[in-house]
Amino acid sequence: MYIVLYAIIVIVTVFVFLVLIAPKSYEVNRSIVIKRRLSEVFQYLKYIKNQDYWSPWKRKDPNMKQEYLGNDGEVGFIVKWEGNHDVGIGEQEILEIKDNEEIKSQLRFFKPWKSVSEAHIRVLKLDRNQTEVTWGFSGNNPIPFNIFMLFFNFEKTVGKDFEEGLASLKNILEDN
């Protein structure tokens, strides 16, 4: 009887300890320099539909179903998607556009698990024909699901996808 009680106490203690030390939030960003004028880069980026050409997730499921609500390139535009197990089900909404500076959006994932992330794409003029693009997102890890982040390198996995997407974006914009 005491062994079972001690085992339960140990399990609960370990669980509480993991909840306390596990990250409560996440943030992933990657940047790349594109040899194009800032205004041209920003004009391309503000249209969410253009992500179909450079986003790594579109390549993970070229047959994903998409639905568009509103006017692309404007605050309030929403793209909904439903795809395979690699991309899941979710939607992205443009929340804010600061011309030639930043596009903020919200990513709402429904499957394979529910979560909400704040995404951004920022541009910075380096010189007349060079623009730095930073793509990233952040969010919160609700308890007890934050324990998962102790065993999964979110920064590395998602960061790799961002690097791949930005490299594709660079190829598209520098080849045009």
Commentary on this structure:
There is one protein chain. The termini are far apart. This protein has 176 residues and is an alpha+beta fold. The chain has one domain: 2-Layer Sandwich (Alpha-D-Glucose-1,6-Bisphosphate, Chain A, domain 4), CATH 3.30.530. Helices cover 34% and strands 36% of the residues. It is elongated, with a radius of gyration of 20 Å. The chain has helices spanning 2-21, 38-45, 51-54, 56-60, 154-175; strands at residues 25-34, 65-69, 78-82, 89-98, 102-111, 115-127, 130-140. The protein has a seven-stranded antiparallel beta sheet with strand order 1-7-6-5-4-3-2. The mean pLDDT is 89.
Task: Based on the model shown, name its key terms.
single chain; 176 residues; alpha+beta; Alpha-D-Glucose-1,6-Bisphosphate, Chain A, domain 4; seven-stranded antiparallel sheet; 7 strands
End-to-end Cα distance, whole Å, is 73 Å
Spell out the helices and strands N to C.
HEHHHEEEEEEH
Please state the second-level CATH architecture. 2-Layer Sandwich
* CATH homology-level superfamily: START domain
Strand count, sense and barrel status of the largest sheet are:
7 strands, antiparallel
Q: Strand order within the widest sheet?
A: 1-7-6-5-4-3-2
The fold-level CATH name is Alpha-D-Glucose-1,6-Bisphosphate, Chain A, domain 4
Low-confidence stretches: none
What gross morphology would you assign? elongated
Helix content: 25-40%
**Radius of gyration from CA coordinates:** 20 Å
Query: How many strands in all?
Result: 7
Number of domains: 1
Structural class: alpha+beta
Number of alpha- plus pi-helical segments:
5
Mean pLDDT equals: 89
Q: What is the strand content?
A: 35-45%
- Please report the first level of CATH classification, the CATH class: Alpha Beta
